Amino acid sequence: MIQHRKWRRTEKWWREQAVREEMAFGHFVREGTMVAFPLCFPEVTVPPPADECHITAVDVTPPGVVYMGLSGRRARVMVGMFHACAGAVMEGIAPADATECPAVCCGKTHFAAFFNSPAGGSVAVERLWASYKDTIQEWVLMPWPSQDLGVVFAGERVLHAVADRAGRCAVGVTDRRLFRLELKTSELSTIAELNGAGRLVVGSRGGVFGPDEGQTLWRYDTRTSEWARRAVKLPAGDWSRPLNWARSPLRGRNYLADAGGRLFAFDEKTGFSDPLGNTPHTAVGPMAVTFDGRVFGFSGEGIAKLFCFDPRKKIVTELGAAVSTIQRRRYGYVFGDAVTGRDGQILFGEDDDLGHIWLYFPRIRNH
Predict the structure, then answer these.
(1) What is the CATH number for 342?
(2) Can you tell me the mean pLDDT for 190-208?
């Protein structure tokens, strides 16, 4: 009679198993779920050509309609709906000569899209989508009319723009000026002449902030139209790269990372915090804040890695590279913008050929 020795999982076996798990799965997102959604109505329409799918701007309305600005051989705007019985990305504005869309701004009733072409910066304004589409059985594809203002900044590039908290206007910068656009009337005015740089952000009290001279920020009040140079001094850090902000959708607290990966919080009343931690890699890209206050963003060159800053634990954690096995099986390497969705999920715009809009659902915290 042959007796088999009972196999026991020793401590060594468990260590080896942990190494195998880390080798197989440790390089990709380890918390939450990512879904890469194509820029089309699946099985009905096709996405734009691969070299026209670089998502460089994202904004969202309170009901959850996502507006995306695409750059590449030809620039355009696309609109996505991902909840209830909707699940599609629709074609929008596509100016003939534009190759870049640096910003889309969703207001209370209208949105604005900003484009760059060899002739200069242009603007298009249109009413927000009023209702959702049933993309299961009662869908209808309709032409999308828009008010194209044409090239309004001849010889100037639009760098960035944001909508104010009331949703009535957009404030933006070109490489030569600071401007304001009334979303409902399309009235455009110049606030001041300046050498524009970086991205803008709306503060916790409604002020709009942007990079100024001498490692400072200017401030513009959309209610009083007051503009102040060098209103806030940036904290000690390496500010050699363009600023990239993350704004909390509920608390109004903003986050900013310097070129060395140091993360700071910014409140319009109290100013900047001390360094909160370091991102795992430098070259910090787009960031956004979910409803519980956690900051999610990408950092690193070539293949960016997702990170999370938890303000309760006061730690920064690397979560791995982006990968999707739901909807589309795809790796994500480079991202151009991020925004918080209606339900607290984070939406990342992929800045790559054949780009997708990535929906990231963070892990629910275990209290």
Answers:
(1) 2.130.10.10
(2) 93
Q: What DSSP state is assigned to residue 52?
A: G
Strand 335-340, strand 346-350: pairing: antiparallel
User: pLDDT tens digits, residue range 19-61?
Assistant: 666 656 668 999 999 999 999 999 899 999 999 999 999 999 9
Greatest Cα-to-Cα distance within the chain, rounded to the nearest angstrom = 94
Give the Cα separation of 304 and 323 in Å (integer): 11
Structural domain includes residue 9: no
pLDDT at 56: 98
Helix (H, G, I), strand (E, B) or coil at 319: strand
Beta bridge partners of 121: 116, 153
pTM exceeding 0.90: yes
Paired with 117 in beta bridges are 120
> Is residue 125 one of the residues assigned to a domain?
yes
What average pLDDT does the chain have?
91
Say which residues have a Cβ less than 8 Å from residue 323's Cβ, sequence separation at least 6: 28, 29, 34, 330, 331, 332
**For position 129, what pLDDT does the model report?**
75
The rounded distance, in Å, linking the Cα atoms of 40 and 178 is 35
**Is residue 146 very low, low, confident or very high in pLDDT (cuts 50, 70, 90)?**
confident
Q: What range does the domain containing 156 cover? A: 28-131+152-361
* Residue 71 placed within a domain: yes
With cut-offs at 50, 70 and 90, classify the pLDDT of residue 367: low
d(CA 215, CA 247): 20
Percentage of residues of the chain with pLDDT beyond 90:
78
Question: Distance between CA atoms of 270 and 279, rounded to whole angstroms?
Answer: 23
Edge-to-edge, what's the strand order for the sheet holding 330-332? 284-289, 295-299, 305-310, 315-324, 330-332
* Cα gap 204→268, rounded to integer Å: 5
In a domain, 237, yes or no: yes
Structure tokens at 98: 């534009």
- Residue in the block written with tokens 């001041």: 192
Residue partners of 57: CB distance under 8 A and separation at least 6: 68, 69, 101, 102, 103, 104, 336, 337, 349
